[in-house]
């Protein structure tokens, strides 16, 4: 049996959402496009939810959505500068203006 020595413990595997995600979209001239948002620090992020109920709780029941797998959403978002993916964000109404997740 071989033993590997590491200077540090390896990082735990990142949690990857299982199954298709529910992605908010908006209508545009070319059809629907994924909505991109900004993080509290101003970076662009793609946003997805693990259920339609979570999406409605955060963005309202009238928000249109599509189902996409994580790799497909990343492939759509990265070319337009959204390198991050935020899963199941929650709207926080008591945060000062400009400090919550907002539409890009």
From TrEMBL:
Q: Which InterPro entries match?
A: SAV_915-like_dom
What is the name listed in the Swiss-Prot or TrEMBL entry for this protein? SseB protein N-terminal domain-containing protein
Q: Which organism is it from?
A: Streptomyces lydicamycinicus
């Amino acid at each position: 049996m071989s033993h590997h020595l590491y200077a540090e413990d390896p990082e735990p595997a990142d949690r990857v959402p299982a199954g298709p995600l529910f992605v908010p979209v908006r209508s545009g001239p070319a059809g629907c496009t994924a909505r991109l948002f900004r993080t509290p620090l101003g970076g662009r992020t793609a946003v997805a939810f693990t259920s339609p109920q979570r999406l409605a709780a955060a963005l309202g029941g009238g928000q249109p959505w599509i189902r996409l797998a994580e790799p497909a959403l990343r492939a759509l978002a990265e070319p337009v500068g959204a390198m991050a993916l935020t899963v199941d964000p929650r709207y926080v109404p008591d945060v000062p203006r400009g400090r919550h997740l907002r539409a890009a």
